[in-house]
Specification:
Layout lengths: L1 H31 L6 H11 L13 H17 L5 H8 L3 H13 L3 E4 L6 E4 L5
Length: about 130
Amino acid sequence: MKHQLIDQKCTAFANEIANVVRTIVLDALKTAGTARISPAKKTAQAKKSHLPMGLAPGQKRKPEDITSLTEHLRRYITRQPGLTIEAISTALNIPTRELLLPVKKLLAEGAFTTTGQKRATRYFAVFTKG
């Protein structure tokens, strides 16, 4: 008799736990579609999904676009010497990653000099005689 009572109590308790777990899981599934993404996650997702000038993944920029951006950057740094790439990016409203190739091209052709290192690098136009 005591064993039957214990079995009944254990079965009732197990059923109660199963019902509570089922309710929690169903509630979680119902709200999963309406869950809000935290601002930090949105920022991380935006950074990952950002592509230069709205290009599709794996698509390269056109040479004309790079040339145009390079000339725009050359004029800007000539007028505003001594800025960091972040300051230039903010002023021109162009993501830093889009400016990296034009900056490398201009440095390679000797149009600029730099001071500082890494994020503290500042860019200056080189004026040639002639």
